[in-house]
């Protein structure tokens, strides 16, 4: 309870900082510049004014350096001896060039990352005794520090997290010491009080794998935050196409956790004598519920108006999670009951957790071969075979309607227009084709990701009680997967054999996410389950009610008190506060449900 109070006190302090700094942008100089140049700046924008002192008209073009081989786009046209201005994005480095229509030549070209709220000028001049125009740059108004809100929030949350970890740790140490004293001093004349008995009972009672619940809760908390907007920062949103951001890490973590949970849960049920038919009933029921929740429930919002087939999306996050759960559960049900060798921890049995499940490995290898063959060998009309690009203005504009290659072609053939219409590449790459990141072809690699999670669960089962062996094998898997991803991507964003791409769920993306998952789960396992330095608060609360929190935040995210109409659109302050507040509310709700022992299970 103390941690919840600290969290809300910190957020209240952040509110005061935001509203006290709100007057920062309300000054006469700021608005006079707007009146002079015209455009009204928003978050992640700067004002760029061009002063053409030539006797000829010039045109300004731009490209974003994040956009791979993109065709230059017109920004503004400046008449002779005139001025013009435009609002430009400050998210990525921009390359701009000024071209003369009369000379049919580029007058100047430069690359620069502009900062939020800044006012910049470019003076296009003809110097004395010269026939070549030049461009002179100046800063008319200093930019804002766009990362100051993030820094304040990070320091505040770090302080709260430190208290959340330290206070329960001290409390547990006191309880443990009292329990030890009671046990050591107990005799016929010594009466154990209720609190001491409870502490001993807690210490003696075997606990579940808390690190897995904490991992799930951490992934869910990050997902809620990025789904609410991530404070408007680009790295808390999905990458435009290739590459990784924080938002791209979350769903693979969930898939990985599904695989680990399946192995641990099914191993426990099999020990209790649950037969295969009962397992199949449970698997089928849970899969149907998850997919129906995603298809019928989260597809619709009151903001969309009457339900219409024309905009109904068939693929989705819960649909993919449900189908992945179904496949990995079948793998565990039919080919996951191999007996554990008595000496599984010795060197000669070091690979038993792999060889004992060779039918599963054969199936996964066949699935991955199928993905590779379809992706790189399937012909797509009017598109290069094996194309993995975003289409639109990318790749020199040669393949504008080829977004996603074979993956998008299969989805359009099966679903028609009933898929995601606003892919992450739409804005930057100017694509016109729908593309669904939860499409059919990517689901194959989602199953592979779930299988890597199953491997993490098998290691826990095989090496139970051998914590060093578990941690070493996790580290080994992380190294193997990380090196494989680095080779496939050539350690670049766009130039690899198979780029890291969340939209396509490419093989390199799955391998890199597997690497991160093994590292994160291993780290939490060491800190929580091995050393006991941390019990996973507050992430363990949403982690034990993940379905409730996910469905709830999806349905209620646009309603008060989770969000409100923002007053300050020019900076990240209020947006970040709103997203942190909404996320904190769901953590608090999960904590209250945990105290009431309410857990929504399917």
Q: Outline of this structure?
A:
The protein is an alpha+beta fold and 602 residues long.
Could you name the key traits of this structure?
602 residues; disordered N terminus; 10% strand; four-stranded mixed β-sheet; Immunoglobulin-like; alpha+beta; 18 helices; four-stranded antiparallel β-sheet
Q: What is the secondary structure topology, with strand pairs?
A:
Blueprint: H1 2-21, H2 28-37, E1 45-52, E2 58-64, E3 73-78, E4 82-89, E5 94-100, E6 105-112, E7 119-125, E8 134-141, H3 148-185, H4 194-204, H5 210-227, H6 247-271, H7 276-297, H8 317-335, H9 352-355, H10 358-377, H11 406-415, H12 426-429, H13 440-462, H14 467-489, H15 507-530, H16 540-543, H17 546-556, H18 573-595
Parallel strand pairs: 1-7
Antiparallel strand pairs: 1-4, 2-3, 2-5, 5-6, 7-8
Q: Could you characterize what this model shows?
A:
The protein is α+β, with helices and mostly antiparallel strands. Helix content is 51%, strand content 10%. Strand 5 (94-100) and strand 6 (105-112) form a beta hairpin. Helix 1 runs antiparallel to helix 18.
């Amino acid at each position: 309870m103390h941690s919840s109070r600290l969290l809300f006190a910190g957020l209240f302090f952040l509110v005061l900082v935001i509203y006290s700094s709100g007057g920062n942008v309300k000054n006469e100089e700021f608005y006079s510049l707007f009146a002079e140049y015209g455009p009204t700046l928003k978050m992640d924008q700067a004002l760029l004014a061009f002063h053409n002192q030539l006797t000829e008209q010039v045109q300004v073009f731009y490209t974003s350096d994040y956009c791979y081989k993109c065709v230059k786009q017109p920004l503004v046209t400046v008449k002779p001896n005139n001025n013009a201005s435009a609002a430009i994005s400050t998210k990525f480095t921009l390359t701009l060039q000024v071209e003369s229509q009369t000379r049919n030549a580029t007058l100047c070209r430069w690359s620069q990352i502009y900062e939020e709220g800044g006012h910049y000028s470019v003076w296009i001049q003809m110097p004395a005794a010269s026939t070549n125009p030049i461009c002179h740059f100046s800063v008319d108004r200093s930019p804002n520090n766009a990362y100051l809100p993030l820094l304040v929030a990070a320091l505040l949350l770090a302080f709260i997290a430190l208290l959340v970890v330290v206070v329960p740790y001290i409390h547990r140490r006191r309880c443990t010491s009292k329990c030890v004293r009671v046990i050591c001093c107990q005799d016929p004349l010594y009466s154990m009080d209720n609190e001491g008995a409870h502490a001993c009972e807690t210490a003696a009672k075997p606990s579940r794998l808390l690190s897995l619940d904490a991992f799930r809760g951490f992934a869910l908390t990050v997902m809620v935050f990025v789904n609410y907007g991530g404070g408007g920062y680009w790295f808390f949103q999905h990458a435009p196409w290739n590459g990784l951001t924080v938002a791209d890490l979350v769903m693979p973590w969930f898939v990985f956790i599904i695989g680990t949970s399946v192995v641990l849960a099914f191993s426990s049920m099999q020990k209790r004598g649950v037969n295969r038919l009962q397992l199949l009933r449970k698997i089928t029921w849970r899969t149907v519920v998850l997919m129906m929740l995603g298809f019928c429930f989260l597809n619709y919002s009151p903001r969309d108006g009457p339900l219409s087939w024309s905009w109904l999306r068939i693929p989705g996050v819960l649909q993919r999670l449900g189908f992945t759960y179904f496949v990995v559960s079948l793998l565990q049900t039919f080919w996951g009951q191999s007996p554990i060798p008595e000496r599984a921890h010795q060197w000669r049995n070091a690979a038993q957790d792999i060889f004992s499940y060779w039918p599963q490995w054969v199936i996964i290898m066949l699935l991955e071969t199928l993905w590779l063959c379809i992706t790189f060998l399937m012909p797509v009309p009017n598109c290069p075979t094996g194309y993995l690009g975003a289409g639109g203005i990318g790749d020199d504009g040669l393949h504008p309607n080829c977004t996603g290659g074979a993956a998008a072609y299969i989805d359009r053939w099966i679903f028609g227009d009933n898929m995601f219409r606003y892919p992450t590449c739409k804005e930057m790459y100017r694509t016109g084709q729908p593309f669904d990141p939860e499409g059919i072809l990517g689901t194959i690699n989602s199953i592979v990701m779930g299988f890597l999670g199953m491997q993490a669960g098998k290691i826990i089962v095989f090496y139970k009680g051998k914590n060093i062996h578990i941690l070493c094998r996790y580290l080994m898997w992380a190294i193997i997967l990380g090196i494989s991803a680095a080779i496939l991507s050539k350690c670049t964003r766009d130039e690899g054999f198979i780029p890291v791409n969340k939209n396509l769920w490419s093989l390199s993306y799955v391998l890199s996410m597997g690497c991160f998952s093994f590292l994160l789960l291993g780290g939490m396992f060491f800190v929580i389950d091995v050393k006991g330095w941390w019990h996973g608060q507050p992430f363990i609360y949403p982690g034990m009610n993940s379905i409730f929190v996910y469905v709830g935040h999806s349905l209620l995210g646009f309603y008060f008190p989770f969000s409100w109409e923002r007053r300050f659109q020019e900076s990240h302050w209020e947006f970040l506060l709103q997203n942190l507040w909404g996320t904190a509310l769901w953590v608090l709700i999960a904590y209250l449900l945990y105290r009431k022992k309410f857990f929504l299970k399917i």
